[in-house]
Amino acid sequence: MPQIEIYTQPGCPYCIRAVGLLESKKVDFKEINAPRGTKEREESIERSGGRTTVPQVFVDGQLIGGCDDLMALERQGQLDAKLGLG
């Protein structure tokens, strides 16, 4: 199974939605709490090539993107393969 990481911030509706989708897929993932001003948020920005929003999702170190990107992959039927389910 690929390593899945998601940077989130408490109370963020997009983060909640993205985490919910990953949970519905029953995949193991690491949720990294990354509120503004933390080293985790800076790490997320650096890893994502300058994206300052959360969530940011990575699969095996490769950026998938934010919530909208994750949902788009799901609608296109491509998310399961990215998550190692297909």
Automatic annotation (TrEMBL):
Coiled coil: none annotated. Residues 4-64 form the Glutaredoxin domain. GO terms for molecular function: glutathione disulfide oxidoreductase activity. Keywords: Cytoplasm, Disulfide bond, Electron transport, Redox-active center, Transport. GO terms for cellular component: cytoplasm. Transmembrane segments: none annotated. GO terms for biological process: cell redox homeostasis; cellular response to oxidative stress. InterPro entries: GLR_AS, Glutaredoxin, Glutaredoxin_subgr, GRX_bact, Thioredoxin-like_sf. Pfam families: Glutaredoxin (PF00462). It comes from the Bacteria. PROSITE patterns: GLUTAREDOXIN_1 (PS00195), GLUTAREDOXIN_2 (PS51354). NCBIfam families: GRX_bact. Has a glutathione-disulfide oxidoreductase activity in the presence of NADPH and glutathione reductase. Reduces low molecular weight disulfides and proteins. Belongs to the glutaredoxin family. This is Glutaredoxin. It comes from Acetobacter vaccinii. The gene is grxC.
